[in-house]
């Protein structure tokens, strides 16, 4: 295989070959999220509320794993583009070691914080009990999640998108099959309820990691984990964290946002907390496929940037922006036409469905312009410019939306909170485009 294919093949076919496998796997992952929530909702509405409250901590764990993985991916891609394979191996080896350390710390911290965290948002002992039962099992798989994500980013950095597609899809399919079996106790399996939902997720994630390990061991790869590179090198560690920390914060910020919005909405009714939780499950159908395109873009844009191919970098950015925008247009249409049907997948309570219809119609007004922020932030991460990417995410998840949600909520109630979403996306899109242009402007 031509090692320089990322800078020599035509941009559009190359991007499609890199992005489409990830889009497909992200769509399956989106389906898993919906199916998982659907089965949990069959336990009770309290169970779905508990899942919504646990979600920010789960998202934080995923954010740290994926964000640091983005740092590993960007550093590997840059050194491969520059023709320095030994440093690429060093980045992969030290990145994996640090990722394992992160996962151990997060496992202990997440389990310890959950009782206090849940009580901040609900006084229902039933909801708290369900949340604790789910999280106690789910968080035990943190090291599996983080190790799997690390190998995913290593494979993506060398262009092996089909490996990550197959691995992710197999894990998701296993999840989907095991959910009803373990939750409701089908066949010889006992009925495990919330613990079953968490265990199904963990087993699926373990399956994904197992496939990565088998492929890594039996198939040669341009990047290898090497024992002699495990001794931490200060410059390499700083380079990994300089990208990984902003990327992790980018992905963790939605947890801050959801927890803050839950606090605002809880003053009206727990119905709105449930609506917000359902919305974040539904929006994965849009943002995970868009993220799949961004994942296909990152190694390409990093490799070409390292090789000095700045014209190709701009071409890649523009094509990805158009592709993300197309996904967002489709999502907007679906939310406007079928909001009630979407909400009824997770609840049969008329009050909740009506509240959800209103929320989906209003929030979807910001989907299209959000493509600018998503693409710009992902491109900057691929270029190794973590701080400018973080600026975009801070605007999108904290600086603009939280004051807007608080003020509009005070004036208009829950409807004001939903309007804060599209207002934030419009404002952040302008900021994101400006940040991307200034950060990629050639230096004289």
From TrEMBL:
<comment type="function">
    <text>Multidrug efflux pump.</text>
</comment>
<feature type="transmembrane region" description="Helical">
    <location>
        <begin position="163"/>
        <end position="186"/>
    </location>
</feature>
<protein>
    <recommendedName>
        <fullName>Probable multidrug resistance protein NorM</fullName>
    </recommendedName>
</protein>
<feature type="transmembrane region" description="Helical">
    <location>
        <begin position="359"/>
        <end position="380"/>
    </location>
</feature>
<keyword id="KW-1133">Transmembrane helix</keyword>
<dbReference type="InterPro" id="IPR002528">
    <property type="entry name" value="MATE_fam"/>
</dbReference>
<keyword id="KW-0050">Antiport</keyword>
<feature type="transmembrane region" description="Helical">
    <location>
        <begin position="415"/>
        <end position="436"/>
    </location>
</feature>
<keyword id="KW-1003">Cell membrane</keyword>
<keyword id="KW-0472">Membrane</keyword>
<feature type="transmembrane region" description="Helical">
    <location>
        <begin position="315"/>
        <end position="339"/>
    </location>
</feature>
<feature type="transmembrane region" description="Helical">
    <location>
        <begin position="387"/>
        <end position="409"/>
    </location>
</feature>
<dbReference type="Pfam" id="PF01554">
    <property type="entry name" value="MatE"/>
</dbReference>
<keyword id="KW-0813">Transport</keyword>
<comment type="similarity">
    <text>Belongs to the multi antimicrobial extrusion (MATE) (TC 2.A.66.1) family.</text>
</comment>
<dbReference type="InterPro" id="IPR048279">
    <property type="entry name" value="MdtK-like"/>
</dbReference>
<dbReference type="GO" id="GO:0006811">
    <property type="term" value="P:monoatomic ion transport"/>
</dbReference>
<feature type="transmembrane region" description="Helical">
    <location>
        <begin position="198"/>
        <end position="219"/>
    </location>
</feature>
<feature type="transmembrane region" description="Helical">
    <location>
        <begin position="130"/>
        <end position="151"/>
    </location>
</feature>
<feature type="transmembrane region" description="Helical">
    <location>
        <begin position="240"/>
        <end position="265"/>
    </location>
</feature>
<dbReference type="InterPro" id="IPR050222">
    <property type="entry name" value="MATE_MdtK"/>
</dbReference>
<feature type="transmembrane region" description="Helical">
    <location>
        <begin position="60"/>
        <end position="83"/>
    </location>
</feature>
<keyword id="KW-0406">Ion transport</keyword>
<feature type="transmembrane region" description="Helical">
    <location>
        <begin position="12"/>
        <end position="32"/>
    </location>
</feature>
<dbReference type="GO" id="GO:0042910">
    <property type="term" value="F:xenobiotic transmembrane transporter activity"/>
</dbReference>
<dbReference type="GO" id="GO:0005886">
    <property type="term" value="C:plasma membrane"/>
</dbReference>
<dbReference type="GO" id="GO:0015297">
    <property type="term" value="F:antiporter activity"/>
</dbReference>
<keyword id="KW-0812">Transmembrane</keyword>
<feature type="transmembrane region" description="Helical">
    <location>
        <begin position="271"/>
        <end position="294"/>
    </location>
</feature>
<feature type="transmembrane region" description="Helical">
    <location>
        <begin position="95"/>
        <end position="118"/>
    </location>
</feature>
């Amino acid at each position: 295989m031509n090692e320089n294919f990322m800078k020599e093949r035509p941009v559009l076919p190359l991007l499609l070959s890199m992005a489409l496998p990830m889009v497909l796997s992200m769509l399956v992952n989106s389906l898993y999220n919906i199916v998982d929530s659907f089965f949990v909702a069959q336990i009770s509405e309290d169970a779905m509320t508990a899942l919504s409250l646990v979600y920010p901590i789960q998202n934080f764990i995923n954010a740290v794993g994926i964000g640091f993985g983005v740092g590993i991916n960007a550093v590997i891609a840059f050194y491969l583009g520059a023709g320095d394979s030994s440093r690429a191996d060093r980045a992969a080896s030290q990145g994996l070691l640090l990722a394992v350390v992160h996962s151990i710390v997060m496992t202990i911290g997440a389990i310890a914080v959950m009782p206090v965290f849940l009580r901040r948002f609900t006084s229902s002992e039933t909801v708290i009990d369900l949340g604790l039962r789910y999280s106690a099992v789910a968080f035990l798989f943190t090291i599996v999640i983080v190790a799997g994500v690390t190998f995913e980013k290593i494979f993506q950095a060398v262009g092996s998108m089909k490996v990550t597609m197959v691995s992710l899809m197999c894990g998701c399919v296993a999840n989907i099959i095991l959910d009803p079996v373990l939750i409701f106790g089908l066949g010889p399996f006992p009925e495990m309820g919330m613990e079953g939902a968490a265990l199904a997720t963990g087993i699926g994630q373990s399956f994904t990691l197992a496939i990565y390990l088998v492929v890594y061991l039996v198939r040669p790869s341009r990047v290898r984990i090497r024992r002699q590179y495990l001794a931490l090198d200060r410059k390499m560690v700083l380079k990994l964290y300089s990208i990984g920390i902003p990327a992790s914060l980018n992905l963790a910020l939605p947890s801050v946002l959801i927890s803050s919005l839950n606090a605002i909405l809880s003053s009206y009714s727990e119905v709105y907390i449930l609506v917000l939780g359902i919305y974040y499950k539904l929006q994965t159908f849009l943002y995970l496929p868009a993220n799949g395109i961004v994942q296909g873009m990152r190694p390409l844009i990093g490799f070409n940037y390292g090789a000095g191919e700045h014209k190709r970098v701009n071409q890649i950015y523009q094509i990805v922006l158009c592709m993300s925008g197309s996904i967002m247009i489709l999502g907007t249409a679906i939310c406007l036409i079928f909001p009630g049907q979407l909400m009824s997948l997770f609840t049969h309570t008329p009050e909740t469905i009506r509240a959800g219809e209103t929320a989906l119609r209003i929030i979807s007004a910001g989907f299209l312009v959000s493509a600018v922020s998503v693409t710009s932030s992902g491109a900057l991460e691929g270029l190794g410019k973590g701080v400018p990417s973080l600026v975009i995410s801070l605007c999108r998840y904290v600086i603009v939306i939280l004051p807007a949600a608080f003020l509009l909520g005070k004036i208009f109630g829950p409807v004001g909170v939903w309007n804060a979403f599209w207002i934030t996306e419009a404002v952040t899109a302008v900021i994101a485009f400006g940040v991307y242009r200034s950060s990629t402007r050639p230096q004289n």
